[in-house]
Amino acid sequence: MAPDLQNGLKHPLLLLSSGETSVTVKSQGRGGRNVEYLLGLFQALKGASGIHALAIDTDGIDGSEDNAGAIISPSCWGRANEISLSIEVALDNNDAYSFFEALDDLILTGPTRTNVNDFRAILVLPAR
Predict the structure, then answer these.
(1) What pLDDT was estimated at residue 62?
(2) Taking 90 as the threshold, does the pLDDT of residue 12 lie above it?
(3) Which of 19, 44, 77, 128 has a C-alpha 20 to 30 A away from that of 51?
(4) Predicted pLDDT at 5
């Protein structure tokens, strides 16, 4: 069960962070730091309602891939289950790119030619 991050929350909360995360590469899958981070967060949230997040690189390229990052929402959990995507397999294979590609949740901007930073945003909405 996902942690109850919305308990007592009266207003939306936006958590921002930046900087490059670290990834231990164990396999030959596709993905970069941002999508790997986001897949780990997705696993921890377990489809919690009211929580949306993105992880993106301002230069438009996450690692060596063509995506800038990816986005998750509460609906992703059900969609991943419907098409039998395994978070554990994707994480074990360092293949977050293929996971989010299957969900159509990659963020594709093309190269921006501006490399300011990697950043993450997590939006937590109050429980209804």
Answers:
(1) 75
(2) yes
(3) 19
(4) 64
For residue 101, pLDDT over 90 is answered with yes
CATH of the domain at 51: 3.40.1480.10
Q: Is 127 in contact with 6 (CB distance < 8 Å)?
A: yes
Judge contact between 61 and 68, C-beta under 8 A: yes
d(C-alpha 92, C-alpha 21), whole Å: 17
By the 8 A CB rule, do 118 and 33 touch? yes
Compare 2 and 7 and report the one with higher pLDDT. Answer: 7
Measured CA to CA in angstroms, residue 47 lies from 1, 52, 57, 79, 108 at distances of 9, 10, 24, 10, 23
68 contacts 62 by C-beta, under 8 angstroms: yes
Q: How confident is the model at residue 82 (pLDDT cuts 50, 70, 90)?
A: very high
Residues in the chain: 128
* Residue 42 within any structural domain of the chain: yes
Counting the structural domains of the chain, the total is 1
19 lies in some domain: no
Q: Which helix (H) or strand (E) holds 91?
A: helix 87-92
